[in-house]
Amino acid sequence: MALKLVESILAKRGFEVLTCTSPNEALRLFETKKKDIELLISDIVMPEMDGTKLASRIVQSNPELPVLFMSGFVTEHEVEQASTLDQFAFIRKPFRPQTLVQAVQKMLSGSEQTA
Questions:
Q1: Residues 6+ apart with CB under 8 A from 86
Q2: Which domain covers residue 66, as residue numbers?
Q3: pLDDT tens, 54-85?
Q4: Residue 15: exposure state from Cβ atoms within 10 A (0-12, 13-18, ≥19)
Q5: Which of 18, 76, 92, 100 would suit a FRET pair with 3, their CA atoms being 20 to 30 Å apart?
């Protein structure tokens, strides 16, 4: 449900959004579309692989790719792991649609927003 909501919010604001339902699907999609992807948005807590591991693997292929993490529950350790990435931001769930849009715009413009 959160995935569809984020997709809807961003699509209504004119962003092209590619969605995946699992980290492994995201890795496969990134391999085929890496030239078209300008921002990775990921939850931190996910089954199979946490968002920081997913982002680390993707950023290895594209070190310039900004990453926006979101989570309703996150530990200090998880935020520390996320902060090892050069360009990252974090927003806490629940968030207002405008908060998401502003975070995406800042990441895409190169204005980093840290946790």
A1: 59, 63
A2: 2-109
A3: 999 999 999 999 999 998 876 676 666 666 66
A4: middle
A5: 76
List b or e across 39-78, with b for residues whose CB sees 16 or more CB atoms inside 10 angstroms.
bbbbbbebeebbbbebbbebbeeeeebbbbbbbeebeeeb
Domain count, the chain: 1
pTM over 0.85: yes
Residue found by looking up tokens 């292929």 in the block: 61
